[in-house]
Amino acid sequence: MRPGVASGVLTALLLGACSTPRLQLNSISPDALKAQLNYAEFLLTADNDTCATRLERAQQQVGSVAASSRTRVMYPDGWATVADLEYRIHLARAECLGEAHHNEELRTAVSSARQAAELYRNQFDYHSMVVMQFDASVALHELGDSPAAITALETALDMDREYGFADDAAENYKLLLTWRGETASDDRVATLMHDFPRRQAVLKFGWSARDAQVTLESRRSCLMHEQLVTSHADAVFDRRIAATDDGGWAVSYAHRLTQYMPGVWPTSPGTPPMAFPPALLSEVGYKVSASGEFDVVTESGSFADELATKTEELIRTSAPAGKQAQDLMEAAVETAPDNLTPGMLEAVTAENYQSETAMWIGATLDQGVWYEVNASLTLPGLPRIATQHRVEFAFTRMVPCSAGDTAPVCAEIVMRLTPDKEALDRLLADYNNRTDSAHINGYAASITTRIVTDPTTLLPFAREQQVFWYASITNGDSVLQSEHLVSTVHYSGWPE
């Protein structure tokens, strides 16, 4: 637990949450939604009742999740698992409901598979994306549309090659040969697989003096009285990497408050009166060693004061009208410095450097292989609390470094972070045992991060994070919130 948490986890929780004058919500745990999807999946393979009855019940469960406001918070662009199950339901209906509905259900299955593939892509679950592309080809083949099925399967094979899914590719080539009416022997498949790419990302630290412009955008969503409330924060500033006398590197920033919006007020008119905490978009200067080890933060206190002053100004000038909004404005102004303390700025700076650069120094990653480590990280929504996390990561593919580039010379790395359950349970039990106030009944969080970096230097080019977190308290309060953060870096004179 970080210093300064003596006031309790509850205070830290409220600092990280969207807030109203009095937050009174029913339980909005995402666990119930996941249970519904698990039940729908069970119904697809159960042997009780008729198939039509089971599939109708499965469709009701999936439809309820798809329509839920909680789903729109957790997955603003859509939940891939929902579309995946829709595909399986319609595929089963094509067999169950008879000839009259066969083709209609298969066409709907194709549409669901394509939607699921796109949603899995957006969530960086590339293997599931390829599986759904394959499933779309299967449904097209059952429809009797052989040319479209072959084209869809060839697209799946292109994906296999891009993302390095060799085992899938071998099976898919065998099926492709069969659909084409060709001999699908092992030798023929081996011939098609002989040039299948075997990629590695060999990651080395090799910074050089650089000037860059950083652009950040944060879209946050929160559930208030079953209504989805969103905010948008953004910042544009300059970053400089300069050599130090001892052979290391100093990172400094300029113009951080010139183009900065903290995203405190909701973007949609007619939403419940509420305010978000200021988005932690700005970083502070720091130094690293010649080998890339994080050394020290070179500023925090002075900039934290500047940031809090600018944030207060922006909160006041963009506040909505009305007495309730005025009360919220004063509360937002009062709590803004607590959300922008030097310690919090230092923590986000160190964690961002760790995920973008330090973690990969000297690593060699085989494409498509998932690795796992444990790390102590701050909890989403509880910005003053750190606990052990399970960190899974993979080198997924080679991509252009920046928009407008064409050569795929940068490595894309995807990370999935979840709090360690035992460590989290101990932390919450410790807090609940030490307080007579409201207890924290439950907490859940999920973070998916996409990093784009130059493997020869580990200069970061992009970081994209998808986060959702949930917490419930014994007094009846609950919070469900998500954030989609996109950070891009444009280096002067790049590419060289």
What does the secondary structure layout of this molecule look like, with pairings?
Layout: H1 9-15, H2 31-45, H3 51-67, H4 69-74, H5 80-96, H6 99-122, H7 126-143, H8 146-163, H9 166-179, H10 186-193, E1 200-202, E2 210-224, E3 227-243, E4 249-261, E5 286-288, E6 294-297, H11 301-317, H12 323-339, H13 342-356, E7 364-366, E8 371-379, E9 382-399, E10 410-419, H14 421-433, E11 440-453, E12 460-473, E13 478-491
Antiparallel strand pairs: 1-7, 2-3, 2-13, 3-4, 4-5, 5-6, 8-9, 9-10, 10-11, 11-12, 12-13
Helix pairs in contact: 2-3, 2-5, 3-5, 5-6, 6-7, 7-8, 8-9, 9-10, 11-12
**Poorly predicted runs:** 1-14, 21-26
Strand order of the largest sheet: 6-5-4-3-2-13-12-11-10-9-8
Helix and strand sequence = HHHHHHHHHHEEEEEEHHHEEEEHEEE
Strand content: 25-35%
Give the overall silhouette: globular
Helix vs. strand class: alpha+beta
Tally of DSSP β-strands: 13
> How many individual helices?
14
Cα(first) to Cα(last) distance is 44 Å
Give the C-alpha Rg: 25 Å
Largest sheet: 11 strands, antiparallel
Number of domains: 2
In helices, the fraction of residues equals 40-55%
Estimate the mean pLDDT confidence: 89
How does this model look, in words?
By secondary structure, this protein is α+β, with helices and mostly antiparallel strands. The protein folds into two domains: 305 residues, no CATH class; 123 residues, Tetratricopeptide repeat domain (Serine Threonine Protein Phosphatase 5, Tetratricopeptide repeat, Alpha Horseshoe), CATH 1.25.40. The protein has an eleven-stranded antiparallel sheet with strand order 6-5-4-3-2-13-12-11-10-9-8, sandwiched between helices. A two-stranded antiparallel sheet has the order 1-7. Strand 11 and strand 12 form a beta hairpin. The radius of gyration is 25 Å and the shape is globular. The N terminus is likely disordered.
